[in-house]
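Dig into these lines:

——
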Amino acid sequence: MSKIKVLIVDDSAVIRTIVREILQSDSHIEVVGEAEDPIVARELIKQLNPDVLTLDVEMPKMDGITFLSNIMRLRPMPVVMLSTLTTKGADTTLQALELGAVDFISKPTESELLTDPESFKQTVLDKVKQAVKIDQKNFKLTNALNNKQENTVKLSFSGCQRPNHLIAIGASTGGNDAIKNILMALPSNSPAVVVTQHIPKIFSERFAQRLDADCSVHVQEARHGLKIKTGNVYIAPGDMHLKIVSKNGNLFCTLDDAEPVSRHKPSVDVLFGSLVPIADNVQAMLLTGMGRDGADGLLSLKKVGARTLIQNKSTSLVWGMPGAAFKINAHCEELPLHEFALSILAFASLSRDQMKDKINE
């Protein structure tokens, strides 16, 4: 098998060295070049024809967003962004994902490299190897068509017949676009939605704020003890597990600072596991993402009466998490991304007896 050819673009010589050494430690990867700015990178792309680009979001001469936009227009290819954990870095990275970047890696601090270098190394290797598998051009065209066909207008909804009906979403790589696709179609009286997306703390806050500006539903980062209400969406903070508890006929967000589960914090399995006691009033879904987080939790929910959904392969940027759920038959239904919003609203409008009949079909 031929090696994955990677071009590193970053104005920091230190970061370039760290990333190069990590990538070269894997026999399946070859670093074919390095560039300190997009001007140099542009020429190296022509000369070296890399399979994957790692791209700093903030650089001199031409910013990463402008350069990425040009790449996606002239030569679509898998791009993994290297992001700083700042508000500016978060905004730029989220914009990059909307433009077509496959994924992002948070630049580690010096203390993180000293205390847990293996975690950063594994993240870099995993994401570069995953990126090369993605048909970037086909994926963007497919989802652009899906969005145009289904989600150009808000859907109507007559309301839930069951109190505390809850929508739960788990996602990772490619999840930002997928979650936005669903939430933008939901009307303001939609059932409440809880979301666990693999994303760092400052990114989750900015992600929620950006979604809130675009959606009819109110999107916010979840807070400990926050009461769950119709028409609201609660995003798990990027450094805490989100659980849902039922008290006195109401649902509440609970944040848990426990250890990562399968390297993830927040973890989709943790969220889904907390929903088992109320499963008969839950719709849970696994969207695009690398790995298998959420698959076991989805199966647990299906076994106790929840409606469980997975995103199909053709509309997933990465069919890892939904694919893992598919393998263990954790899903009731498999849907293309553009059908989720209409499907969950139609199901939410059913009575409890109708809902049970639908699940048992």
Q: What stands out?
A: The chain has 14 helices and 14 strands.
